[in-house]
Design a protein that fits this description.
170 residues; mainly beta; single chain; four-stranded antiparallel beta sheet
Length: 170
């Protein structure tokens, strides 16, 4: 007796197909996870390009056999504000499956710097009292383009909010 088993080429598959990190300068965001699967289990290699991106981008996994979860982490320490991009390529060392490339986008924004918190009428700095109107002076406190809204003001304006001991300033 003769038995013939025909199988398809094992294909690497990754989910999601791309990652984006929005981070503040100097703050390390939480890692994001990629799920890697294939038909039958296969081994894989991971490469980051350009090679200079490996100074701020890392990929870790606990196994080199599919199915696997890959943790993609960004270290924003030392990165100037701006847009950064890299690719993570996952390949099968036996070349039985075509490689999968995952684009990684990192948007670094400057951290806010508060120079002074003063009374809105007198511009005097000092303790803050409930119900007091305040003025915040500093840089990187909101968007680059002036944002406005109708009345009454909400708790967030253009993605910026002010908290006092974790509670919104209203």
């Amino acid at each position: 007796p003769v038995t013939l088993t025909v199988t398809g080429v094992p294909m690497l598959s990754v989910n999601p197909s791309s990652l984006t990190f929005d981070v503040q300068s100097g703050i390390t965001p939480a890692p994001q996870t990629l799920s890697l699967t294939s038909g039958p289990p296969i081994g894989f290699n991971i490469a980051i390009s350009p090679s200079s991106a490996s100074s701020w981008l890392s990929v870790t996994t606990f196994t080199a056999l599919t199915p696997a979860s890959l943790n993609v982490a960004v270290n924003a320490t030392g990165l100037a504000p701006g847009a950064y991009s890299a690719t993570v390529t996952i390949s099968d060392p036996s070349n039985s499956s075509p490689p999968v490339t995952i684009p990684i986008a990192v948007n670094v924004v400057a951290s806010p710097i508060i120079g002074a918190v003063t009374n809105a009428a007198s511009f005097q700095a000092g303790p803050v009292a409930p119900g007091e109107l305040l003025v915040l002076f500093g840089s990187n406190l909101g968007p680059g383009v002036l944002a406005s809204t109708g009345s009454p003001l909400g708790l967030t304006l253009a993605g910026t909010s002010v908290l006092f001991d974790g509670s919104p300033g209203v």
